[in-house]
Amino acid sequence: MVGVICEGVGTCFHWWRGGSSLVALDEVTDPQNLGAIIRSAYFYGASGVVLCAKNSAPLSGVASKASAGSLELMELRSCENMTQFLTFSAENGWRVLGGSVSARAIPLNEVVPGAPKILVLGSEGTGLRPLVKRYCNLHSID
């Protein structure tokens, strides 16, 4: 089920209700980086990966090769509006953690276990977009 576009925010959210962790990619544009992140998400046991529908790397042969086969094993979804997806997820009990180098950041190993989590990673050049960053409850990578 690679590359399925969510018809609505709720559709995307309810599809993963049973999972405990997701990775959301905010405009990651390099296909090799996309594949490497999918590979790492699979290795660390993420339930799935959510991609921005626009301004993101395509699910191509390059991404598949970089994923070392995990692209075919990992559940992927594409959302039209990342901020709506994150807002809806937070309202339904998910902790939204944004990867950042900001002064507010805390080490990932200090995140208290519990509620299901979404780790949001930004683009290679600019990181998380300011609007997406505002919807993250915690900036988790320093």
Residue ranges: pLDDT <50 for 5 or more in a row?
A: 1-8
Helix-strand string: EHEHEHEHEEHE
Number of helices: 5
Radius of gyration: 14 Å
Distance between the termini: 33 Å
Question: Which strands sit side by side, in order, in the main sheet?
Answer: 1-4-3-2-6-5-7
Instruction: Please report which band the strand proportion falls in: under 5%, 5-15%, 15-25%, 25-35%, 35-45% or over 45%.
Output: 15-25%
Please state the structural category. Answer: alpha/beta
Beta-strand segment tally: 7
- General form: globular
Summarize the amount of helix as a percent range: 25-40%
Characterize the biggest β-sheet: 7 strands, parallel
Mean pLDDT: 83
Q: Can you offer a commentary on this structure?
A:
With 142 residues, this protein is α/β, with parallel strands linked by helices. Helix content is 29%, strand content 21%. The chain has five helices and seven strands. Strand 2 (21-25), helix 2 and strand 3 (48-52) form a beta-alpha-beta unit. One of its GO terms (biological process) is rRNA processing. Residues 22-137 form the tRNA/rRNA methyltransferase SpoU type domain. Pfam families: SpoU_methylase. This is tRNA/rRNA methyltransferase (SpoU) family protein.
